[in-house]
Amino acid sequence: MNTVTIGGKAGDGIKAAGKLFARILNELGYYIFLLDDYPSLITGGHNFNRISFDKKEIFSHYVETDVLVALDDKTIKKHSKELKKEGFIVFDSNSIKYSKGLGIPALDFVKKVGGVRIMRNVALLGAISFVLGIDFKVVKKVLERTYPTAAQKNVAIAKLGYTFAKENTKQVMSLKKVGKPRELMSGNTAIAYGAVKSGLNNYIAYPMTPATSILHYLAKNSDKFKIKVVQPENEISVINMALGSAYAGAKTMIGTSGGGFALMNEALSLAGMSETPIVIAEIQRPGPSTGVPTYTSQADLNFVLNAGHGEFPKIVVAPGTNEQAFYKSAEALYLAWKYQTPVVILGDKHLGESLRTIKINEKKAKKAMAKLSKGGKNYKRYSITKDGISPIAFPGRRNTIVKSSSYEHDEFGITTEEPEVIKKMQDKRLRKIKFIEKEVEKLEAVKIYGKGENIIVTWGSSIGAVLEAAKNLKNVKIVQIIYFMPFPKKKVLKHLKGAKKIVCVEANATGQLANLVKLHIGIEIKNKILKYDSREFDPTDLFRKFKRWLK
Amino acid sequence: MNLNTNAEITWCPGCGNFGILIAIKNAINELIGEGIKKENMVIASGIGCHAKIVDYVNVNSFYSIHGRVPPTLTGMKLANKKLVAIGFAGDGDMYDEGISHLIHAAKRNTDITMIIHDNRVFALTTGQFTATSPKGFKGKSTPKGSIENPINPIKLMLAAGATFVARGYAGKPDHLKELIKKAVRHKGFSFVEVLQPCVTFNNTYQEYNRKVYDLNAEGHDTSSFELAMKKANEWKEKIPIGVFYETQKQVFEENY
What kind of fold does domain B17-251 have according to CATH? Predict the structure, then answer.
């Protein structure tokens, strides 16, 4: 396992360089995890990408760095302490004065071929490709594929960097081809793609970091996926538009972060009452309030579980890896339409925006389908049934009138204030919960890794660092909870009962998962490893903490 | 076609909503007679006295929440362009709670019709001032009289880019029916402001009966934005009803 960290100012093309380097490694057959760290600004500040890679599957980035690539001073100041003993620095000597490592006159090279300043990143990429022992042909191939219209200049700049490094330093690694290229995907893209494969028709969202990349990805690919993508005036409009869309028969998803989800709460309850299927991707960032917009957190769990006034069936699923994000997103659309109720996919910035190698079988994405009604003269949109699911018809069907309502209503959808009818309808809706519980039991609601008497409980994106950190621990079992509503009590109890030691790992300050475990199965987890500085867990640091816990 | 439902009508006797109910039922019936398929008709409402109307008309409906009818209808059109979408909202519903949605629906030029039951009072919450209540309005939350000036919905919608702007009167259901039909037939965002007396909290029948006149009967040029803006200022002595402005722009859903 090795790590390369690339840093500079916003506007220096850090993200592009990170992605390019990840693609080069991918071309060589490595497994990759790329962390994209950026502050909430457009130009300036400090951005970095951290790319960890291995011949085996990798679940997290590591802070400890083998090669640091610096486009500005700040990168060296901030990250040189993260270098391993034998670590190496490559920097732009036109903008930075530094005595160690390899200085590349990156700006000179850019000027030489008539490029623009942002292309400095490519000069440095060329240089580190030599340092890491990567065949230049691979670099060239990736550049040509990434910049089909500006390939020539980019390749020339990379070559200058590569040659300069060859003449001035030694190789520290020799990265040869170890396998075939694979797919790279962020968690947000996986959520979007999973929904598409499940049968998504419409995606509606208002921009909010860190959920916006779902909107960007689907908007860019809307023709290919044959979907409609809309950006309305605010989040309240988003969810109400989505409910109108679903009422008229379109499978619809929306996406936001905590603050936007707060605005959607009233209509979340409307979805429950009107039994309109909807999937909401809530990609967490640190709160309260505006919080830390471009960083990560797992502090909205309680909020999402308790969202929406009144009582109605709701499903909450929290994938932890990009693969889970794909399958669970499809599952979310499937469940929303099967049970005609809202489903929340709870993600976070770290899952959503980190790029990772992915292995998915698209055919295994669950297809969304509703129990349809043929309609007819006496069609009851809210017919009372054993499982609480009323066969659905959509406006446009002949001789059928479809009446949906936010008010308590009778089977036809007409407002009622009669106590007997109110109780019957509430029972009908809540009856769905029992059947959802049964179905979720059969799904991967809890994922178990390894065997042992000591248990690590975790959820969401924290699973990545936990899996890496626990690689060298003995007698440890990891329990990742994926479904939170309904809570998979039986499975969690089965795995936690009789444990020697239990520790809970999550990215919030109050131990929300640990509290839920106590609430649902009565087991109190006293050991908690909590992180709430808005940054992700680092496997190396987590490993030390696990060692202390196991002592 | 009988468009009644089994729902019991719970408006106050004499409520302006009855005039709007007659107008919409007749408009829908005639539109169906003229070839619009009944199964493609969808109505939606917000929350307030006006909103009960969806329970009283036997066509597809979505009884939405306060202020949110325009996005709800826009979503329906996204899913199925063939739907003929008519929304109802009150003045509190649309000019207070959901004003941003109304403005954006007009800006987008979604092919929907919004009918605003403007009784210039929050009635179902037993009488508070709304965005269109006159200055000095004495309600339960403003016992000394409201200190706020009302907004002018016609001007607001003209400024927002609505492509069909009209005003009707609940006391003239036949005229209102024709307006609704024109609004529904218009390709793009149609706005119909309806003067609606509230017999309990703001009885304006006498005032409206005295002041209202049909501006289209006087040869108003509906293609002129400037004239529409000018007419929108009339209120004190005479109140114009009819089509203020009509134009064509690209329709939102046609882009998808």
Answer: Rossmann fold (3.40.50)
